[in-house]
Amino acid sequence: MAAVRPPTGVRDAPRRSVACCSGRQTRPKAAVPWGLLAVQADVQQSPCRVAPARRDQGVQQRLLDDLALGRAAADQRVDAERAAPLAEERALALVEGEVRANELLDLRLHAERQFGSAVHSAVVGRPVTFVGVESDEDNQYAQDRLRLSLETAGFEQVAFEYEPVAAAYHYESTLDHDELILIGDFGGGTSDFSLVRVGPNSDSRGVLGNEGLPLAGDAFDARIVRRLVSPALGSGSQLDSSGKLLPAPGWVYFKLERWHHLSFLKSRETINMLKSVLAQALEPEKIRALLHLIQHDLGYKLHRAVQQVKIALSQADTGLFLFQDADVQLEIEVHRAEFEEWIAEELASIEQSVTALLSKTGVDAKDVNRVFLTGGSSFVPSVRHIFETRFGSEKIRTGDEFTSVARGLALRGAHLHV
User: Fold this and answer.
1) Is residue 331 classed as helix, strand or coil in its secondary structure?
2) Are 40 and 21 in contact (CB under 8 A)?
3) Is the pLDDT of residue 85 over 80?
């Protein structure tokens, strides 16, 4: 990555840094010059599809067009059943982008107050492949959109780094010898892998290759919602329409699989439709619970409960899904073997991505010295099993699963030429 130089007048500022990861701030081992801010951005939640007819437009104009669309969609609460999927994804993504700029501004100002010096530069982590991209151009567009949010927040100089490579910098700081390592970074929406030579010998250091796919923790959560939660809220149930049995509308339950899509269901048309379904439902208590969930914007609370049962299944063979709000109470036991069956397709994709990385770099698994796994989904036993089977359990290393990327970004900043 090209060197990033400090803004004029900041070169002699005190060496300060802050690393941001999963809402926590941690002080990295190495100081970072000129008030540089290391940020692990939560970019996985932002779908980045680009309409083919618009790819000849400039990035700035596309961003402005999308922002206008996003605001309009949010203001009008577009009915999720009728809205074009692409327009809805863009609406969500751009509204999130505007919110992200405000959050980054708050973070920058907080860092300046904490350290007493200006912060105008950032090293930002990004996935190898953003969620929803279909081409390299889409990947670049997603990064440009993230850069615009950072610039809006007052960051004048921005450098990007792949998140698994950042984790490699963190792991390297613990070494006194050279190693060839495979980094597996499992975020909320992406799984990213890098093969990197690390160690104190600068002549041998370098990134051999990267690979990524747009699925990870959120995809696992979606499977739990589909197979465990949605049936308890009426998915697959029937209604009696003038003596004719009809299924409950399935598209509603698809929206439940992503908590930040739930607000799109809170439209007058959708609520009235579900009230009509309730009047005809053969299992009305389930539809009533679904209505309560939508009307009270409980998507985030629901997915927190989903994450809790996922965590429980990483620690034991059985877990209890528990959700309670007012008169709605869901209490369902689930077994790890069931969960692993539900996510079998995602596990296969992760394994294929690792195979692709080894193949394109020409590296044999036996030549990899260590495998460093980081991110929340690295705790899932079936995910770890993929790497234990391929590389051997003795090579697996973990640690600082929720901070290693942010710490690595800060270390990357310390090595920038100024």
Assistant:
1) strand
2) yes
3) no
